[in-house]
Amino acid sequence: MKLIKHVPGNLSHVTTFILIGVSEHPELQLPLFFIFLAIYGVTVTGNVGIITLTSIDSRLQTPMYFFLRHLAIINLGNSTIIAPQMLVNFLVEKKTISYYGCATQHGGFLVFIVAEIFMLAVMAYDRYVAICNPLLYMVVVSRKVCFLLVILTYSYSLATAVTVTSCVFSMSYCSFNVINHFYCDNVPLLVLSCSDTHMPETVVYISAATNLFVSMTIVLVSYFQIILAILRIRSAEGRWKAFSTCASHMTAVTVFYGTLLFMYLQPQSNHSLDTDKMASVFYTLVIPMLNPMIYSLRNKDVKEALKRVFDNPCQAFKNV
User: Fold this and answer.
1) Residue 84: HSE in the Cβ half-sphere, 13 Å Cα cutoff
2) Which end of the chain has a smaller Cβ tally under 10 Å, C or N?
3) Does 242 reside within a domain?
């Protein structure tokens, strides 16, 4: 997508940005505040619940739930880097964020969104090994391998965030400082730059395309092999049991990648910053709220662990 350049008359350096937010209509600010406060409250409750449950329950100490715990940490981080500033902006007249605050939010968002992309890929690989090589599962996805995959995911996402954020904020931002978004994102920031954006645009799009291609390839290849393995199972009960072990993850992957593909694959004639904004609401705030529900409501182990905690909370926490 070609960025529209704004050429300001006054070349004084920007020290603060103004975030337009989800909507510019004053009458919608308070209702939207309560809607997004509820979404963030459910997100925090659900993801903290998943983190706690997978940490204290002895039956959830498997690679699958180890990765689920880190997905919950990532979802919580992704929402928290966006939602508090967004909620404050619904209540104030001047929706400002400092230059360095904007850079921090931008970098934090990239850390968590890239980490989520690759954590979902890691979880798809985990399900592939569990279904296609069950006898070697605990050897292939050992505790050491689990820690290594998580460390690599976080390290790569941090390196990506530092690289892209450095490129975006190496640009000159002059007098026009209104960001058509509810947080500091790549495209609306580069639109404001009063210097040549060719290099940061290239870095942003190559990074996004590479991350999506690699992670989606891992997910698609893993699930292609999983489907073949399930079809080879003769009994209907066996097929259903195998499918149920990855149903929650398949739902989460479909929702997450479906949103990203809708955003990146729509025709340029239909593409706008407002469309990006609505898609961003979904993958920064709604998906982190939905994931704990998906893994709780569709997962027998999580529901049973939750029941054990409610039945005897003291004993559950004593086992930590």
Assistant:
1) 9
2) C
3) yes
